[in-house]
Specification:
- By secondary structure, the chain is mainly α.
- Helix 3 runs antiparallel to helix 4 and helix 3 packs across helix 5.
- The longest helix is centred in the C-terminal third of the chain and has 25 residues.
Length: 122
């Protein structure tokens, strides 16, 4: 029953401006579909669209819990993580490496015509 509601996710045009212009996915492409499939309980499909989708949900819940704890205890816990330069660089390196792998697989699995069909130029 859930699959009937998700069929359009497989076929609908992306609203990503980068993908619409170039036909190639941006580093964030697939996050929304990943979140939708995660909420529907399909973890495999969620991770297949974007590996960081489930982590976004975990991050949001942890943020709510930590900020609530900060309000209650009147102490700051989140600031050290939020402004951690080393963590930010490591996450940026991971995202760049992950995106490079996704681009290689995307080019390998799609012809030039397929890529052109995913843009607004066709």
């Amino acid at each position: 029953m859930l699959n009937n509601h998700n069929d359009h996710l497989e076929t609908d045009q992306s609203f990503c401006p980068f993908k619409m212009i170039s036909g190639f996915p941006c580093p964030g492409c697939g996050i929304t579909k990943s979140l939708v499939y995660f909420y529907h309980g399909d973890i495999y499909k969620s991770v297949s669209y974007h590996i960081l989708g489930p982590f976004v949900i975990v991050f949001c819940w942890l943020t709510i819990i930590i900020l609530t704890t900060e309000i209650i205890t009147k102490k700051e816990y989140f600031t050290g993580l939020l402004y951690n330069r080393k963590l930010a660089y490591n996450m940026a390196y991971f995202l760049a490496f992950y995106h490079l792998i996704r681009l290689v697989l995307f080019v390998r699995n799609n012809s030039f015509d397929d890529i052109l069909h995913q843009s607004i130029w066709f």
